[in-house]
Known about the structure:
This protein has about 425 residues and is an alpha/beta fold. It has helices spanning about 10-20, 65-70, 75-85, 95-110, 140-145, 195-205, 225-230, 280-290, 315, 340-360, 370-380, 410-430, and strands at about 5, 25-30, 55, 85, 90-95, 115, 130, 155-160, 160-165, 175, 185-190, 255-260, 270, 300, 305-310, 330.
Amino acid sequence: MKQVNIVGAGLAGSEAAYQLAERGIKVKLYEMRPKRLTPAHQTGSFAELVCSNSLRGNHLNQAVGVMKEEMRMFDSLIVKTAEQTQVPAGSALAVDRDGFSNTITKVLRSHPLIEIIEEEVTAILDGITVIATGPLTSEGFIHGLSPLFDETLYFYDAAAPIIEASSINMEVCYRKSRYDKGTADYLNCPMDEDTYKRFYQELIKAECAPIKDFELKVFEGCMPFEEMARRGEKTLLFGPMKPVGLEQEGKRRPYAVVQLRQDDARATMYNIVGFQTHLKFPEQKRIIRMIPGLEQADIIRYGVMHRNSFINAPKYLNAFYQYKRNPNLYFIGQFSGVEGYVESAASGIVAAVNIARRLNDQPQVVFPIESVIGSQADYIASANPDHFQPMNANFGLLPELSVDVKKKARKEAYAMRALNAMRQFVSDLNDES
């Protein structure tokens, strides 16, 4: 029987395993957890969400929302499981963290064509192999892969703390979504100007956990909020503490707002939105308890920072996520240089579709560059290798529109063109099978 190895059962590896198995291909899925955990993972479940529990925007006015819609055309395991385990989050698609990973684990463990091998891989395996070990790839495997690359790049990522819901003071906090988008699914902790300034001064002098590297390189989308604060007193007011659209009826608009998002289906836990941090744990507790409504907050999980490794993809990968020097190797997920949960899973779809075609003696196919999935693959393969950095899905990666469209209608035009291109692409694939 046709067989593929997949190393790593994160979002990318889980999606790729499902896509291949559903196409009749046997998969050996290697995962070192729970025997060996990473600095950020806490369980042995597949597709564990290490940072936020949000898969970001779910509307077609955002590129990541279009990407999810494209993934639905491929029966994406990640997207449909997210919808099954969804928790209230306004216009975003957020999930019950444990329910999401437990469901994916159950699906993959019960699939007749997927064999789970619980061990750490430290050398390249024989046969077609998909590397989906993520940004927390073990040191042993990075050493095993080192002959393939001139260098391994990295940045630091951080996770936000999670608060026990029963410890939140609901006489101070109130429910509302920014700009009233969706239902009132966020808890909001308001600050007046004096409270914010005291909070800010304590925050910028709070002690951080030590980082070994001389230079702290962070991904802008996951920048620790204390690092963001050091850019200026008002920086947080234009970021995670932005008060616009969060007025309470009959009350003056707050000067700043801290938002909390539900983290589990039973609403027993909330994470602090945008408050990724690498403050020392006692400092996190002290700073968080300065937030109105969180004076007695019980922190279930403290924020942590971890080093994320990735390869300089344009030097080594093509638009199939295939290693240029060895056609039997594919690199997907964040280790390949994509950034984000959804983006990682999407890379798994591209690789799986093309591996299945190879095994069925069909030529590999480039996903349409007009689509969000295809534009990401094109970026991975053709960005400038001298300045390559991971990037989230965005409309800026897509080709310019061929017709003049007013600014307000451009996102819709990009979205409709992307979805039409992907529908035609999927139709053509189905006609060939």
